[in-house]
Write a structure and sequence with these properties.
The chain is of the alpha/beta class. It contains 11 helices and 10 strands. One of its GO terms (molecular function) is hydrolase activity.
Length: 311
């Protein structure tokens, strides 16, 4: 066993035959001879472990938990598969990466029960993974995108445009053997706030607060992060798995969200489909992205998650 200590520890674990890079956050006074409740953390699209995991990891460790944040396959410090491209963040693989993260935590002798905490797209990944992974004993989602059909398919013309672009990108990459990168969230790494807001993108100001070049965790501020992404992403991100299997989830579930956020329906529609009597916490004062970084929002969500996991 490597020499682990309280705070952040760099680790790797196998998934799809390659080493995924992770940060394992351990609580103050960590003692490898004791056992702890552990959390696998799943992050928003298109984040790397220096963003949400680097915010939520220390907070959950401060509350006595072990927290594993990691870079999904082809993201950040984790390699792509041989012959494939970086930033190919495909939902089906994200789920399997999460299963493997759970397996890794299960090898640690100081880990007791394993829980899951997903933020934004991470909520969808986690909920999907938990359907058939009962090693995950409880799940919590924050600003989760679990029920994304209404959000993503509300305007079929826009959805079809995204699909057409993704299809063309996939064909181009197959024929050329080269990566085709785009700006799927419309924001690029050089835009000012004014330029991005002027595009009329929903949640533009909120999004820029985190992902913009002047945002709290944008390009240049977080290692290996860029808003650029692989061009065929929409072919998988438009397939929302969690909401269609919500009634199969048996683990105790906590859903934290902002009812005034544009993404609220992704939580409320999921809650409506759950059959496991979920706990729900709605914070009127916080937006979708507030839960990523604003100290008061992060404290509210991590306090709630800690209380839920400690029950």
């Amino acid at each position: 066993m490597m020499n682990l200590q309280a705070g952040k520890n760099s680790v790797t674990f196998k998934s799809f035959g390659v080493d995924l890079a992770g940060d394992l956050y351990l609580p103050e006074g960590f003692d490898a001879n004791k056992t702890y409740k552990a959390i696998v953390g799943t992050s928003p699209f298109p984040q790397v472990k220096g963003q949400i995991p680097a915010i939520y990891g220390p907070e959950m460790a401060k509350r006595g938990f072990i927290y594993l944040g990691f870079d999904f396959l082809g993201m950040g410090d984790s390699p792509a598969l041989p012959g494939e491209y970086m930033k190919s963040r495909y939902m089906f693989r994200l789920i399997e990466n999460t299963w493997d993260a759970v397996s890794y935590l299960g090898t640690l002798p100081f880990v007791d029960e394993i829980y899951g905490l997903g933020v934004c797209q991470g909520g969808s990944i986690l909920a999907s993974a938990a359907v058939t992974d009962h090693r995950i004993k409880k799940i919590a989602t924050v600003s989760g995108m679990m029920a994304a059909d209404a959000f993503q398919w509300g305007n079929r013309d826009i959805a079809n445009m995204m699909i057409a672009g993704a299809n063309a990108s996939k064909q181009k990459m197959y024929e050329t053997g080269e990566a085709d990168y785009v700006w799927p969230n419309v924001i690029n790494d050089t835009m000012s706030r004014e330029e991005f807001v002027a595009t009329g993108t929903p949640m533009a100001d909120d999004t820029y607060n985190f992902y913009g070049k002047d945002g709290v965790a944008g390009p240049g501020k977080v290692e290996h992060f860029t808003n650029e992404h692989i061009g065929d992403q929409a072919m998988e991100s438009l397939i929302s798995i969690a909401e269609h299997y919500a009634d199969k989830i048996i683990q105790p579930t906590l859903v934290v969200y902002g009812p005034n956020a544009a993404t609220a329906i992704c939580s409320t529609a999921f809650i409506d489909k759950l059959t496991n009597n979920p706990e729900v916490l709605a914070f009127d004062e916080f937006s979708h992205v507030d839960f990523y970084w604003k100290p008061e929002a992060v404290k509210a969500s991590t306090d709630a998650v800690a209380e839920f996991f400690n029950k």
